[in-house]
Specification:
Elements (H helix, E strand, L loop, with lengths): L1 H16 L11 E3 L2 E5 L3 E7 L5 E5 L8 E3 L8 E6 L7 E6 L7 E8 L2
Parallel strand pairs: 2-8
Antiparallel strand pairs: 1-3, 3-6, 4-7, 5-6, 7-8
Length: 113
Protein backbone atom coordinates (compact mmCIF):
# COMPACT_ATOMS: atom_id res chain seq x y z
CA UNK A 1 0.00 0.00 0.00
CA UNK A 2 2.80 2.43 0.92
CA UNK A 3 4.69 1.59 -2.26
CA UNK A 4 1.60 2.29 -4.39
CA UNK A 5 1.02 5.62 -2.62
CA UNK A 6 4.68 6.57 -3.02
CA UNK A 7 4.55 5.77 -6.74
CA UNK A 8 1.41 7.84 -7.12
CA UNK A 9 3.07 10.82 -5.45
CA UNK A 10 6.24 10.44 -7.53
CA UNK A 11 4.28 10.31 -10.79
CA UNK A 12 2.03 13.29 -10.04
CA UNK A 13 4.69 15.71 -8.73
CA UNK A 14 6.42 16.18 -12.13
CA UNK A 15 3.07 16.69 -13.85
CA UNK A 16 2.08 19.35 -11.34
CA UNK A 17 5.44 21.07 -11.74
CA UNK A 18 5.01 21.30 -15.54
CA UNK A 19 1.76 23.22 -15.39
CA UNK A 20 2.45 26.81 -16.39
CA UNK A 21 0.09 29.46 -15.19
CA UNK A 22 -1.14 31.31 -18.29
CA UNK A 23 -2.19 34.90 -17.79
CA UNK A 24 -5.92 35.31 -17.97
CA UNK A 25 -7.30 38.54 -19.34
CA UNK A 26 -10.29 39.89 -21.18
CA UNK A 27 -10.82 38.94 -24.81
CA UNK A 28 -10.45 41.52 -27.56
CA UNK A 29 -13.79 42.90 -28.81
CA UNK A 30 -14.90 45.33 -31.51
CA UNK A 31 -17.64 47.85 -30.70
CA UNK A 32 -20.16 48.07 -32.24
CA UNK A 33 -20.22 44.51 -33.55
CA UNK A 34 -23.25 45.10 -35.79
CA UNK A 35 -24.70 48.38 -37.03
CA UNK A 36 -27.04 49.84 -39.62
CA UNK A 37 -25.96 52.94 -41.53
CA UNK A 38 -27.46 55.27 -44.14
CA UNK A 39 -25.57 56.41 -47.23
CA UNK A 40 -23.41 59.42 -46.30
CA UNK A 41 -23.30 58.52 -42.59
CA UNK A 42 -20.18 57.53 -40.69
CA UNK A 43 -19.56 55.22 -37.75
CA UNK A 44 -16.57 54.90 -35.42
CA UNK A 45 -15.51 51.36 -34.48
CA UNK A 46 -13.16 50.70 -31.56
CA UNK A 47 -11.26 47.58 -30.54
CA UNK A 48 -10.86 47.05 -26.80
CA UNK A 49 -8.34 44.68 -25.16
CA UNK A 50 -6.25 44.28 -28.31
CA UNK A 51 -3.92 46.17 -30.61
CA UNK A 52 -5.08 46.57 -34.20
CA UNK A 53 -2.54 46.05 -36.97
CA UNK A 54 -4.94 46.89 -39.78
CA UNK A 55 -8.62 47.57 -40.47
CA UNK A 56 -10.18 46.32 -43.72
CA UNK A 57 -13.69 46.72 -45.15
CA UNK A 58 -15.40 44.08 -47.29
CA UNK A 59 -18.47 44.94 -49.33
CA UNK A 60 -21.54 42.80 -49.42
CA UNK A 61 -23.12 41.46 -52.60
CA UNK A 62 -22.93 44.77 -54.50
CA UNK A 63 -19.92 43.88 -56.62
CA UNK A 64 -18.12 47.02 -55.44
CA UNK A 65 -17.24 48.90 -52.31
CA UNK A 66 -20.03 50.61 -50.39
CA UNK A 67 -17.85 51.54 -47.40
CA UNK A 68 -14.70 53.59 -47.14
CA UNK A 69 -12.24 54.01 -44.28
CA UNK A 70 -11.70 57.67 -43.32
CA UNK A 71 -7.91 58.06 -43.48
CA UNK A 72 -8.06 61.40 -41.63
CA UNK A 73 -9.35 59.73 -38.44
CA UNK A 74 -6.24 58.90 -36.41
CA UNK A 75 -7.12 57.29 -33.09
CA UNK A 76 -5.34 54.17 -31.81
CA UNK A 77 -7.37 50.96 -32.19
CA UNK A 78 -10.25 52.88 -33.79
CA UNK A 79 -11.46 53.60 -37.30
CA UNK A 80 -14.16 55.75 -38.86
CA UNK A 81 -16.08 54.10 -41.70
CA UNK A 82 -18.16 56.12 -44.20
CA UNK A 83 -21.07 54.63 -46.14
CA UNK A 84 -20.59 55.77 -49.75
CA UNK A 85 -23.53 53.92 -51.33
CA UNK A 86 -26.16 51.31 -50.46
CA UNK A 87 -25.06 47.68 -50.19
CA UNK A 88 -27.29 44.92 -51.54
CA UNK A 89 -26.03 42.63 -48.77
CA UNK A 90 -24.10 42.93 -45.55
CA UNK A 91 -20.69 44.57 -45.49
CA UNK A 92 -17.98 43.80 -42.95
CA UNK A 93 -15.19 45.57 -41.10
CA UNK A 94 -12.30 43.33 -40.08
CA UNK A 95 -9.70 44.21 -37.45
CA UNK A 96 -6.41 42.29 -37.70
CA UNK A 97 -5.12 41.98 -34.12
CA UNK A 98 -2.01 39.91 -34.79
CA UNK A 99 -0.52 36.65 -35.95
CA UNK A 100 -2.24 33.65 -34.44
CA UNK A 101 -5.20 35.76 -33.30
CA UNK A 102 -8.64 35.48 -34.85
CA UNK A 103 -9.58 38.74 -36.60
CA UNK A 104 -12.48 40.69 -35.11
CA UNK A 105 -15.40 41.34 -37.47
CA UNK A 106 -18.25 43.81 -37.34
CA UNK A 107 -21.29 43.47 -39.64
CA UNK A 108 -22.64 46.59 -41.32
CA UNK A 109 -25.89 47.12 -43.20
CA UNK A 110 -25.88 50.17 -45.50
CA UNK A 111 -29.24 51.46 -46.74
CA UNK A 112 -30.24 54.42 -48.92
CA UNK A 113 -31.47 57.42 -46.94
Amino acid sequence: MRVAAALLVLTTIPAAACVAAAPIGPSAVIVPDIVGMSVGASQVFTVYNGNVRKFTVFAGGTGGECLEIDSSYDVANSVRVIATRACSGMAYLQADIGVGRTPLVSAISVNAR
